[in-house]
Fold:
Amino acid sequence: MTPHRLRCLDCGFRAEPGLELSCALCGGLFAVEYESAARESVRLPGVAWSLGEGSTPTIELDWELPVRLELKLEFLAPTGSFKDRGAATLIGMAREFAVREFVEDSSGNAGAALAAYGASAGMRAHIFLPASAGAGKRAQIEAVGAVAHSVDGPRAAATEAADAFVAESGLPLLSHNRSPYFSEGMKLVAQEIAQHGLPDSIVLPVGNGSMLIGLWRGFSELAESGLIGRIPRLHAVQATAVSPLAAAFRGHDTPPTRPTIAEGIAVASPPRLAEMLSAICESEGSAMAVSEVEITSAHRRIGQRGLHVEPTSAVALAGLERLSARGLIAAGERVLVPLTGSGLKHSPIR
Structure:
């Protein structure tokens, strides 16, 4: 295990490494703080439990915009989504603490990733997810031997049910939303991007923000160590139907939530909203929301170019069109968009 401590984001209290999700003094969430500086790569808290995630290809694509568009194909990860990187790190840490059975709540992809990585590490998982989650994601979870607990109601209901189950069972909650170790694994995306040359901007779909936070922390470490000279601007895109980050960025109250085809980012109250805002503002990026019509159009267009991804992935492409039209991304910029989840997990859009 790499020497590190957990630092409360609210009160600054420092705790020893562990699977606790919140500060004993104030209830705030933790970030990982290392005892030594990064040198040749980003730092990780321990040895990841790998199923071969990472090293996803990047391709160029003409999107009929005056930018150089590159797509990082994160949906080619072992379980079909970018969440595998975070799962590898979190399950690796769970092994350090001899976890044999755990609980997680998810809209689908993170649950499928943690279930799969946990199974390969000899752990039994209880995954709580909305009853509306895609059938493919539920099938994935059950195929690796995990228990899929379907919960009626909005995404937040799955979190509440998982918390209640933890209180009753005494099992650890390996929350990809609240654990600091999950987003630490996402720093490896920043390292891979840097190895192939930095884009000017990165446009990505954001729900709970693990990739956004991981990119910011990863690029920051690489910059502090002198391995890169600048940090790309990070532009977060949400569905208008569920857009707490976009609202907070504009200084508005969070609007009421509505159904969206971008189920992977339908998070009304992300626990790490303050970190997400910091990542955007400190990278001189932005946050915005796009309509269901824009998402559906972008999803259809990317499919016509041979890439079958989840509607959540198409959110970023819809956002790129707005960013370009508004001049927030200039003509000639090199822009990277991560395609975050496989379309094989999502029911066809009618």
